[in-house]
Design brief:
Distance between the termini: 45 Å
CATH class: Alpha Beta
Number of domains: 1
Number of strands: 9
CATH architecture: 3-Layer(aba) Sandwich
Largest sheet: 7 strands, mixed
Radius of gyration: 18 Å
Number of helices: 4
Strand content: 25-35%
């Protein structure tokens, strides 16, 4: 039991220290006083771990599923869910995780938030889907660039930062679904961003 606990602590520590943030432009202090952000998600030209393009990743995964279950449409099913998970899983998780960090909606994000004078763009650049086969598992990881700018003047960037290898996975190893693992990466991403805003944008 002690050995298992030790391994769990080591794994958790590894996950915590694996992620990084690298500021690119502007300053987090420029976000002081902003209470609303209109969210824009950008998935163009995503890189997937070990593949040069997202298309190559999907082709590989679809072919493997079709070979294993010929004629059942498992490949197309995977492709459909891969794209559907963006609006159905990743984005809701990001929004929920961010907003609950602020009491009584002191700061909030949302899609199509027309009252917001500032936009927060979440540009996903790289994804590692992770895996869980019972006896072995790895969390998903997400790289994303967060950019905040005036909605009416997109060229005026207040703050831009890169988050690298943000982990995502379920508690107690209950994360067999690829979309679920990745969505937890988006939840972690927004959690870290919200914490940084609360701490530094003042």
């Amino acid at each position: 039991m002690k050995k298992l606990l030790f391994v769990a602590i080591i794994m958790a520590t590894t996950v915590v220290f694996a992620q990084k943030r690298k500021d690119q432009e502007g300053s987090i202090k420029n976000l002081k006083g902003i209470t609303e952000y209109n969210l824009v998600f950008d998935y163009e030209n995503i890189k997937v771990h070990k593949f040069d393009t997202e298309e190559e990743f999907l082709k590989d995964k679809m072919e493997k599923r079709e070979k294993k279950n010929p004629g059942e449409g498992k490949g197309e099913e995977f492709k459909k869910s891969w794209f559907a998970d963006r609006e159905e899983r990743y984005e809701p998780k990001f929004i929920e995780s961010f907003n609950k960090r602020f009491d009584e909606g002191a700061v909030k994000v949302g899609k199509d938030l027309t009252s917001a004078t500032h936009t927060m763009k979440v540009k996903t650049t790289w994804i590692y889907p992770g895996y869980n086969v019972g006896v072995s598992r790895q969390p998903a990881k997400v790289n994303a660039t967060i950019t905040v700018y005036e909605t009416a003047n997109p060229d005026k960037i207040l703050y831009s930062t890169n988050y690298i290898k943000v982990p995502g996975g379920g508690a107690f190893g209950n994360d067999y679904n690829t979309g679920y693992r990745i969505s937890e990466g988006y939840a972690k991403l927004s959690k870290e961003l919200a914490k940084y805003i609360k701490k530094k944008a003042k």
